[in-house]
Amino acid sequence: MKCISVYTSDFELFSDIYEKILETPLQENEEKLVEGVTVSESGGVPENYLNRMKQRPEVVVMKVRDKDITILQHRDVFEIFIPERESVVH
User: Fold this and answer.
1) pTM for the predicted model, two decimal places
2) What are the tens digits of pLDDT across the range 19-32?
3) Other C-beta atoms within 10 Å of 67: how many?
4) Maximum CA pair distance of the chain?
5) Integer Rg of the chain from CA
6) Cα–Cα–Cα angle for 2, 7, 11, nearest 5°?
7) Quick check: 6 and 37 in contact, CB under 8 A?
8) For residue 17, how many other CB atoms are within 10 A of its CB?
9) 45-6-29-63 Cα dihedral, nearest 10 degrees
10) Which residues contact 81 (CB under 8 A, 6 or more apart)?
11) In angstroms, rounded to a whole number, what is the distance separating the alpha carbons of residues 48 and 54?
């Protein structure tokens, strides 16, 4: 899974810029500002990290079902987990 970290604790602001974040091209470990908020491509994350974080009581878990995206909010960061499309080589 690919992880994009968004450094804000403001849910309303996050909601306002969410689509822009998804449309912003980011290279692995690259940071950009989106409407004054730091956004970082954190690279690939193992599935067990996501499962561990979901178990913590201080973590809010949100799911975008139609896109199979999971969003975690904890402290001053939102983490957007996007499944990576597997490319099949024949």
Assistant:
1) 0.88
2) 999 999 999 889 99
3) 10
4) 46
5) 13
6) 100
7) yes
8) 18
9) 30
10) 1, 2, 3, 45, 50, 69, 70, 71, 72
11) 10
